[in-house]
Amino acid sequence: MTTAPRPIAKAAVLDPTDLAPSLANSRIPLPAGVRPFQLNWPYIIVIGAYHVLALLAFLPGYFSWSGLILAIAGTHLCGLFGINLCYHRLLTHRGLKCPKWLEHGMVVIAMSCLQETPARWVAIHRRHHQFADEQPDPHTPLASFFWSHIGWILVHQPELSRLGIYERYAKDILRDRFYVALERHNWLVWINLLQMPLFFALGFATAWLSGETPAAATQTGLSILMFGVFVRTVLVWHITWAVNSVTHVWGYRNYETDEDSRNNIVVGLISNGEGWHNNHHADPRSARHGHRWWEIDNTWLTIRFLARIGLATDVVAPNAHLAGRPRGSRLTTRGTTGVPAE
Ligand SMILES: [Zn+2]
Ligand SMILES: [Zn+2]
User: Fold this and answer.
1) Ligand 2 centroid to 126 CA: how many Å?
2) What tens digit of pLDDT does each residue of 185-227 get?
3) Rounded to the nearest whole angstrom, what is the distance from the C-alpha of residue 188 to the centroid of ligand 1?
4) Residue-wise pLDDT tens digits, 123-169
5) Ligand 1 geometric centre to CA of 286 (Å)
6) Residue 137 CA: which ligand is closest?
7) What spacing in Å lies between the alpha carbon of 274 and ligand 1's midpoint?
8) What DSSP letter does each residue of 100-158 carry, written as one string?
9) Rounded CA separation 151/65 (Å)
10) Cβ distance 127 to 169 under 8 Å?
């Protein structure tokens, strides 16, 4: 585990921590080139359909307690391993290393949550750190809360469509041939389509083997499909999106960073640690986002466990300089992508 102190950005004394919602501070326009009515129809249709199917899962014909438990467990496991640990802390910020088989396996889990390919997710998130809460942050709530939560995904953002974004932000990711293949062969779509019959088959086979009629087993299969895929995906989406929206508006600040990031208790708990977002902007490389003892960070606990059994190495601990800085001192966090220089 890395323990050597890492330098932090320059500090200057500011007013005491501000707990007020940040939206009142100022408004900024949408990123350059965005036309609110240039809609991204494929995303709108898929996201809309998933929401409708997720709601249908709660109708009497489809609802099952086993499905609901599967959706909740799947939300936490896929969100924790796929999005938090792999896409965010490992690939985006290089806060740890894992064996390639494990890293690639977690990427497949992340892709089953229908949140972009690894290169694109990483590129967008590094851009967010570099320009957080100023132009051209891809999803700041200073443009509007709706924009930061989901609006930014539903319209065409020219800056995010250029190939240059990969060159600028995700060159390291695309050195791995596995990730290049995922981009080239549209595996994001294939993984999400393939998991549907798998979940149906899991439900059908379990019910049929336990003596249910084919008709009843089909119903169980559909229930497991609806909860295991659509409800889970929608829940993971909104938890990830809440980190972009809620934790830049509501919550407290341990660090006076130069953007509006906040630590939000609700998002911190339901996202398994990603909601301690002010801590994260203050120290993006750290694999641990919960800095106070009560800021529960299940993703960090999982990384610590993986390190103990030899499946995580080069784990980056919180910056020792942060704890010793003067209270209220300002941290410059913009301008870097939160990833080590190559
Ligand atoms: Zn942020
Ligand atoms: Zn980050």
Assistant:
1) 7
2) 999 999 999 999 999 999 999 999 999 999 999 999 999 999 9
3) 24
4) 999 999 999 999 899 999 999 999 999 999 999 988 887 778 999 99
5) 14
6) 1
7) 10
8) HHHHHHHHHHHHTTT---HHHHHHHHHHHHHHTTSTT-TT-TTT-HHIIIIIHHHB--H
9) 33
10) yes
Q: Which two tokens stand for residue 321?
A: 């300089």
Higher pLDDT, 1 or 168: 168
CB 99 within 8 A of CB 311: yes
The CA 338 to ligand 2 mean position distance, Å, reads 7
Ligand 2 mean position, distance from CA 312 (Å): 19
Please name which ligand lies nearest the alpha carbon of 280.
2
The pTM of this model reads: 0.91
* Cβ neighbours for 219, distance < 8 A, ≥ 6 positions apart: 61, 62
pLDDT of 46 over the 90 cut: yes
Q: How far is CA 212 from CA 25, 67, 201, 221, in A?
A: 60, 16, 14, 11
Do 114 and 42 contact (CB within 8 A), yes or no? no
d(CA 232, CA 184): 26
